[in-house]
Amino acid sequence: MTKPSADVLIIGAGLSGLAVATFLKHKQPDISLLVLEQDDHPGGAIHSHLEEGYLAEGGAHGFFDNCLESRVLVHEAGLDQDVEKAPLAEFVRYICLESRLQCIPQQPGKILKAPLLPLSAKLRVLADLWKKPLPDSPSVAKWVEHRFGKAVLPFADAVFTGTYAGDIERLQIEAVMPSMYALEQQHGSVIRGLIKKRRSNKEKTKGLPAMTSFSSGMERLPQAMAAGLTLNREIMYRTAAKTLTRTESGWLVRTGQLELSCNHLVIALPVNSCLPLVTEIAHRTPPLNHIPEARLATVALGFSKNAEIPPGFGYLAPEQEQRFTLGALFSSQMFPGRAPQGHVLLEALVGGRRHPQRLERSDDELTDRVYQDIKQLINLPDPPVFGRVLRPKHGIPQLEQGYPALLKWRTELQDSYSNLHLCGFGWQGIGINDMHKEAWKMAKRILIDAQQEEDSQEVKGVYF
Ligand SMILES: Cc1cc2nc3c(=O)[nH]c(=O)nc-3n(C[C@H](O)[C@H](O)[C@H](O)COP(=O)(O)OP(=O)(O)OC[C@H]3O[C@@H](n4cnc5c(N)ncnc54)[C@H](O)[C@@H]3O)c2cc1C
């Protein structure tokens, strides 16, 4: 029998893989684990870019602080003092409607009172109370229109442009908003379901969350989590997992040069990187062998203080507005250290599921198109003094037709092997908090399994 290279082997040192490793070490400091990363650095889709005093993000800009798993990870990574927060209660958001930025009130009651929708459209929202659920698994657009009326579509579009850079005609409601979809299925109406949930929820709602990042950008989080692992013993870079084989007691992972054995195998990869690796070991062919991705570019623009950037978080433009830019973050309003003294930073997003061809333009062209576009919405008297186009190599997984069946396939696969764990970008969501929640679930599966083995030998316990 080959001796295990590690009890737990984790493929991928993005936030998901590092989060699994951090949780495991937190609960069991002497655990034997090894993380494999094909790149020469940790972080995957996270990429912070500092240049001439401007700090921009090529990937995620932050995460909300209402997720316990994320808060635990920040603490375990020793970053409590590095956290920067922009509370949503103070940082309003805007939607571009009829070529104007309109403020979206932060509380549901105020949204209903705001003049964003005519009275007839507000009354139509209430039709949700008696609309029967649509058969099959509808797209977000079909579902929202059916339940709440056509007038609500631009708002739904803005939400899913801001999260998935996606197309609401193609994203599946069951996949992207499983809790809302479940309310409809259980109570026959989302509004009724929300009211019942609120009544039965004894815990008081804690108000609006805050957007969270770090003083040197989002990259700080994966860097700090990776720093907690010993180089070449607990984390190896430039080491890509190529094939997986089942052994008598666990798994054998082959890289270019190495054969590594383990008891528990965690595959913490985006769906499209995971599928080619696991298809060989699955009992059933996956219903999809690839899911679509939305690619984005971030265009970071620096202006002098003459730029009249509204107070707030940023804006999003629904497709019906036919704008070049999907939206922009008012980065230095939220996090003032992100631009040099006397300057401001805007980060605009271009491309997405609907407009991938826009990314074929040169950096100069993109910068100019974005500037011309945003100038029509915000008073920018002077041209930008700084411009940088960041082109992430990672796309955002799109949870479209066939995705619920793929998720079911993953569950079946995990059920058939108690020592195989699949998480990562696009499995059960796409946001950082989703990744951290899934990572915790995977860590828990491993610890419970280990606990059962230990129980039979009556060794020390693991407490949750
Ligand atoms: C442009 C963009 C903007 C985003 N904005 C936000 C945001 O504002 N807020 C938010 O919450 N989320 C955002 N996200 C999502 C967030 O970045 C992801 O949820 C998260 O980073 C995914 O982490 P992961 O570890 O699952 O995957 P990844 O980050 O993709 O990490 C996977 C890692 O595995 C490695 N790898 C791949 N194959 C192998 C192999 N065979 N062997 C070894 N290593 C391998 C890769 O090199 C990579 O390092 C954004 C994503 C993108 C792309």
Could you give the topology of this structure?
Layout (H helix, E strand, L loop, with lengths): L5 E6 L3 H13 L5 E4 L11 E4 L2 E4 L5 E2 L3 H9 L6 E5 L5 E5 L2 E5 L3 H6 L5 H7 L14 H9 L4 H12 L8 H4 L1 H10 L2 H11 L9 E5 L5 H8 L7 E2 L6 E4 L4 E4 L4 E10 L2 H8 L14 E2 L1 E9 L9 E3 L10 E3 L1 H4 L8 E9 L11 H13 L10 E5 L5 E2 L5 H14 L3 E4 L8 H26 L7
Parallel strand pairs: 1-2, 1-13, 2-10, 7-16, 13-21
Antiparallel strand pairs: 3-4, 5-9, 6-9, 7-8, 11-12, 12-13, 14-20, 15-18, 15-19, 16-17, 17-18
Helix pairs in contact: 1-10, 1-15, 2-15, 8-9
This protein binds flavin-adenine dinucleotide.
Summarize the structure in words.
There is one protein chain. This protein is an alpha+beta fold and 464 residues long. It folds into three domains: 174 residues, 3-Layer(bba) Sandwich (FAD/NAD(P)-binding domain), CATH 3.50.50.60; 102 residues, Protoporphyrinogen oxidase, mitochondrial, domain 2 (Polyamine Oxidase, Chain A, domain 2), CATH 3.90.660; 94 residues, protoporphyrinogen ix oxidase, domain 3. The protein has 15 helices and 21 strands. Strands 1, 2, 10, 11, 12, 13 and 21 form a seven-stranded mixed sheet that branches. It has a seven-stranded mixed sheet with strand order 8-7-16-17-18-15-19. A hairpin with a 2-residue loop joins strand 3 and strand 4. The longest helix is centred in the C-terminal third of the chain and has 26 residues. It is globular and about 65 Å long. The C terminus is likely disordered. Bound molecules: flavin-adenine dinucleotide (FAD).
